[in-house]
Amino acid sequence: MASKKNLQVGMKSSNVSSHTAVTLEMVAQRAGVSPSTVSRILNGTAVVSALKKQAVDEAIATLGYVPNPVARGLAGGRTFSIGVITQAIDSPFYGASLRGIEDELDPAGYSPLFVSAHWNADMEVRHIDMLRSRRVDGIIVLTGRLDDQALKTYAKSLPFVVTGRALKGPGLFALNFDNFKGGLLATRHLIELGHQHIAFIAGDPEHPDAMERLQGYQAALKEAGLVFDPALVIPGQYHEESGLLAIEALLATGKRFTAIFAANDQMAVGAALGLHRHGLRVPQDVSLIGFDDLPASLYSVPPLSSIHHPAYEIGRQAASAMLQLVSGKKPNLVVSEPVLVARESSRRLPA
Amino acid sequence: MASKKNLQVGMKSSNVSSHTAVTLEMVAQRAGVSPSTVSRILNGTAVVSALKKQAVDEAIATLGYVPNPVARGLAGGRTFSIGVITQAIDSPFYGASLRGIEDELDPAGYSPLFVSAHWNADMEVRHIDMLRSRRVDGIIVLTGRLDDQALKTYAKSLPFVVTGRALKGPGLFALNFDNFKGGLLATRHLIELGHQHIAFIAGDPEHPDAMERLQGYQAALKEAGLVFDPALVIPGQYHEESGLLAIEALLATGKRFTAIFAANDQMAVGAALGLHRHGLRVPQDVSLIGFDDLPASLYSVPPLSSIHHPAYEIGRQAASAMLQLVSGKKPNLVVSEPVLVARESSRRLPA
DNA sequence: TTGTATGCGTTATCAG
DNA sequence: CTGATAACGCATACAA
After folding, report:
1. Is A56 (CB) below 7 Å from strand C?
2. Which residues of B are less than 8 Å from A130 in CB distance?
């Protein structure tokens, strides 16, 4: 009993708990049962008499016992830790997902182990091996670069949850977001505002989602009967610098454009600065819309119109799916749809 | 032996490594030595004959042996994992520090265990307990809320590295940043530009660093012979919303001001939007400077002047210090000084 | 239902 | 210098 101990030792009351060296064995002794019984109760492995369960629960409470995840891991049991492979630990977009994962895992007693792969498939493999050597109970991969087949193979021996792709397989769950539709919505928005010359700042062609957004853009153009001009599509790399550079490239073409759709908010922000540098005002001279709806986009000048991409929710869902996977259930989740968030960076084209 | 098994099963070769079940014992057998010897070589615990070392190294290489951190942890050895307590896993500022920590720890074979305490001392305590139960080799606390005494007590049983405070103690290393000087530099910059009515958007009074920045602001005013007007100091919470609200509050006072120093970039960005909403241009009508120099500040419209706060470096240094601490050395690092980064949001006051 | 014995992969403590 | 042997804390076949 913590209070009793404090009394005995006469130690100065403090919120610093001395490291709990309370073992399962001690609990067993206190409760007058065998260690296995305690283990059974802890894991629900088998049915035990209500009486003993009582005693054990009490012992656990008074002793303040907390299982040692390390020992559990070694014994072949679970480590209660989930590996999470993100691309950059400081990404403004994935950051929200990480928070979602953390929020979902924590109450369940699981700890996330975050690692960054920097868009590098080899590093992803290295990290997966590392995570397995640490005996994580499962791995969540946020938009990885690993090919689907490799992922499927991995999933045979360890639960996997992946975002950003459509996949199915045993021990594998995928959460895909409709990037095509997002691209469609963004472009439609601009078109409905009267714009007919819409430039597109593309994401890295290596990213499937970037390509899907481009296709959405093209589809919207087509359904509106507008011509698709490849010269108005500027390549980018999903970061601010790309947006800035894209404006230069765009202006250099001499083509007319009254609106820009950037494949993500970071590039949109860069584009806004590029426009500003050339004395072009947003939205008076050029309408601008991004994609992802980063928290910061609400505070850009002017606030950026965007396509909401529920990163936090996706994180929670991925973690939730993982929790179900590790407990043998089959995840059953629907990912939310992209939705347009019209703010001040886009406006109707003056007649 | 993995290769033999593969042969038997005739399994398709793939780049997905089947989980390395290569144990230290197998290495020992292959090398014709005892497990203890292998362990010694691995940890440099004792001197072994060059000959045996050769054999063991070879066995390790050919077998592709990789130590099991979990077993190491249980055996009382190190887990090669470092707990990192940040305040929000998706903070734009701390994100850079996390990356620094990751970059420094990874090559050393250590893994960070990131957890968020959300500026809550109780949660910090909970996380520390959790991390200890996971047998981390040390804990890095990024600007925690825990009181110094508690931290010192914890550090007696486990290496701690803390940022954002000045502390000393056994097994404890603190990396403090000179926020006062930063505040001084920012304000001086504005004064040198001819501004005499400088508002200050303060950070949360609960944060010591926020108070230090305020003091720097006051000191700069004083050394320039300018009067300190408390009405020009608006409270804030370090987030964008605060900046936005601060502008309203500032304007409501009716006081004159030609420049604003926000205690961090996030509030500066919010302030920029607030100014924009009132038709006030930055920097033509109001000069603005932030603090922290977030990566995104380079791309705000206009690019934000700020005080560079080397978050990434601090992360690396914290991790480096931890690495030294766990290996019994005494860290010897100097934290870099704040430096002014003048961009386009601040300009000379027209005569 | 419950207890006993064994093993998980390493490190650490002993003897030699 | 090196090799047995005992923990580390828990889960789990195997017995009872």
Report:
1. no
2. 111
